[in-house]
Amino acid sequence: MKFVVAVKQVPDTAEVRIDPERGTLIRDGVPSIMNPFDTYALEEAMKWRDELGGTVTVVTMGPPQAEAVLREALSMGADDAILVSDRAFAGADTWATSHTLAATVAQLGDVDAVFFGKQAIDGDTAQTGPSVAASLDWPQITFIGKVRELSKQSIIAERYVETGTQVVQSELPVVLTILKDANVPRIASLRGKMKSRKAKIPVWGLVDLGLTEDETGLNGSPTKVVSTATPEARTGGSIHQGSTEELVVKLADLLLGEGSEV
Amino acid sequence: MDYMLNEDLLGLKEICTEIGDKYILPIRAELDEENKFPREIMNVIAQSDLFTIYIPEEYGGTEMGSLALAVATEELSRYCGGVAVSYAANALGAMPIILMGSEEQKKKYLPQLASGEKLCAFALTESEAGSDAGGVKTRAIKDGDSYILNGTKQWITNGGEAQIYTVIALTDPERGARGASAFIVEEGTPGFSYGKKEDKMGIRASATRELIFEDCRIPAENLISREGFGFMVAMKTLDNSRPGVAAQAVGIAQGALDEALKYAEQRKQFGVKINSFQGLQFMLADMGTQIEAARALTYAAAGLIDSGSKNFNKVSAMAKVFASDVAMKVTVDAVQILGGYGYMKEYPVEKMMRDAKITQIYEGTNQIQRSVIAKAMIKEAKRK
Question: How far is A109 from chain B (nearest CA, A)?
């Protein structure tokens, strides 16, 4: 089996604060980590590789320093890694990102399944996985809480959705997005760390993927961020006491304005 | 303090930290309370390749050496001394095979110990043979192409949990210590059974058990080295493992200091944090200084072993004595800093204090270590 896992380097949001004046993230001194949801995608791919044989290739699109998450994935047991990086890719929205990642999967060739985390903790869109499936014209199963069966031909997985559990079968190749219910990610091994430190990670850019500047990065992004704003901090409610009649009048005053008729 | 550990050692330490945070911390109180062996944690340790670090590369190891073993043991001990010794006792059990085993023995046993498929234990102590290893009573009598073992080993760490045991027994009782030999005994051998599981003060996550041999027949090829070399095998093994006990002590002490620092930052009395009081600051300063000194000595002893020196017996004893005394003192002080809370099981420092005590006792009491140190010093002085 040939599996691909797409991972993203994100700021550790547990430590991110927002600049209240500018409404932007203060990224200074905030550690970068592998998107936590991606660790479940990686584990799921490795679990099935261990059972069925084959390889897990981990892919990330980002600036050169995003290589760190690829080394982390290698230390956990991924077989190889590719950094998708080019100045032309900067400023990509989810469409341009998905288009670029789909080109990467196509370039790899003979891929059986692409695993994503359910979403990234920075953008929170949950669009990239599904959008890659659309771009490749492959089927997709999102929000997988459990993969029941996987073979060279097909997959049966449980989707955990708000209304319950859906059991979905699909042919391969397929794009999957994985929930944290699916597994417990393994920790890195010593040999994995030694290997990851020495690994040479290829960098694939615009030319390698046969793309043009019009379809990637900011140029290739149909959506634009117009502005960002920080929601106002919530203030505490108020507590009123009294008889039912008094409180009804008070509530009406608060909701409808002072002196309004009930 | 930065000890300039290389990237492999830092990576090893990171793995231990992750195991500690994810697997040990959530259950250490339960393991302690219920006297429960950390089987699942041993599986995680195996998956992370931690059992490979003291085993040569040609037998499935990563051969990272004594300093690596010290770093790993220390970091695991920061979370739980009982879990850490369950890990480190595997190195102790494997050491006789690594140091003195035949090519066939190494090929047969070391790969399955490196992978963690099987656990290992070292069996020397008996009811009447502790520091005086010459007092061993367990007999091994040659019978054709086998040996027949009879006797009882006591307080064997990983007893009942390990599958491979390295056992010291007398082949020639007339010759005392020089009549001792070392053997490999596998779990399931007829005549080999487990006795009482001990109910201990500390390191309660670790299994400490009797091994009973009743006409236990093992193949003659399970003899390690030669007849009469058992005492030498045991002493070499213990010399090599002593920095491991020192590292365990440093880790336990560090864990206690971390808790004391955290508590002293949160706890307020008389309207201020208690870490603003000079009396408490002096305690913290001494604890930190002693731990750093113990760590430096431990790493130096481990580094000396890794350098290939044969002359590390004194320094390894010094590290064990100093670090274990520091661990006892620091953990007592940590309980003091946490005050009434420190005395309660709800907080981890009382466990650390109980765990620390054993490091002054096992693998040679601190009194016997001091004899070793003094004898070595006197011998060195005479040579000058």
Answer: 31
Residue B2 lies in a domain: no
- How does strand A32-34 pair with strand A9-11? antiparallel
The residue ranges of DSSP E strands in A107-163, in sequence order, are 113-117, 140-150, 154-161
Q: Give yes or no for a cis peptide into B190 (omega within 30° of 0).
A: no
Q: Do B8 and A194 touch (CB under 8 A)?
A: yes
**Contact call for A194 and B62, based on CB within 8 A:** yes
Within a domain: residue A113?
yes
B67: containing domain: 7-114
* Contact across the interface for B11 and A190, Cβ inside 8 Å: yes
Residue A205 sits in a domain whose CATH number is: 3.40.50.620
Return per-residue pLDDT of chain B as tens, 384 residues: 889 899 999 999 999 999 999 999 999 999 999 999 999 999 999 999 999 999 999 999 999 999 999 999 999 999 999 999 999 999 999 999 999 999 999 999 999 999 999 999 999 999 988 878 778 999 999 999 999 999 999 999 999 999 999 999 999 999 888 999 999 999 999 999 999 899 999 999 999 999 999 999 999 999 999 999 999 999 999 988 899 999 999 999 999 999 999 999 999 999 999 999 999 999 999 999 999 999 999 999 999 999 999 889 999 999 999 999 999 999 999 999 999 999 999 999 999 999 999 999 999 999 999 999 999 999 999 988
Is B209 domain-assigned? yes
Q: Are both B275 and B379 inside the same structural domain?
A: yes
Domain final position from B230, B255, B283: B230
Report yes or no on B183 lying in a domain: yes
The predicted model scores a pTM of 0.87
Q: Is B219 on the interface with A (CB under 8 A)?
A: no
- Residues B306 and B220 both lie in one domain: no
Q: How far apart are CA A9 and CA A233, in angstroms?
A: 28
Would you call B62 and A197 a contact, using CB atoms and an 8 Å cutoff? no
Domain end among B88, B114, B140 = B114
Contacts of A190 in chain B (CB under 8 A): 8, 11-12, 15, 48-50, 52-53, 62, 64
Could you list the active site residues of B? 363
| B49 reaches A (C-beta below 8 A) | yes
B101 and B129 share a domain?
Answer: no
Element (H, E) at B338: helix B313-343
Does residue B1 form part of some domain? Answer: no
**What residues contact residue B29 under an 8 Å CB cut-off, 6+ apart?**
B345, B348, B351
Partner A contacted by B319 (CB < 8 A): no
Q: Which residues pair with A156 in a beta bridge?
A: A149, A169
With CB atoms and an 8 Å threshold, state whether A187 touches B49: no
Give residue A28's pLDDT.
75
For B22, the closest chain A residue by CA position comes to: A187
Give the ipTM of the model, two decimals please. Answer: 0.85
Nearest-Cα distance to chain A for B39, in Å, is 16
Residues B379 and B267 in one domain: yes
Q: Does one domain contain both B287 and B208?
A: no
- Number of inter-chain CB pairs under 8 A, A vs B: 43
Domain count, chain B: 3
User: What value, to the nearest 5°, has the Cα angle with vertex B290 and ends B285 and B296?
Assistant: 130
Number of domains in chain A: 1
Look up tokens 């998107």; give the residue: A35
CATH number (domain holding residue B299): 1.20.140.10
Chain A: give the shortest CA distance to residue B277, in Å.
Answer: 31
Token duo for residue B36: 């429960």
Which residues 13-32 in chain B show a CB within 8 A of chain A?
A: 14-15, 18-19, 22
Give domain status of residue A220, yes or no.
no
Instruction: Looking at the structure, tell me whether residues B68 and B127 fall in a common domain.
Output: no
Name residue, tokens 């099935």.
A48
Q: Can you read off the two tokens belonging to residue B90?
A: 């595997």
Does the distance separating the beta carbons of B18 and A190 come in below 8 Å?
A: no
Contact A130, A20 (CB under 8 A): no
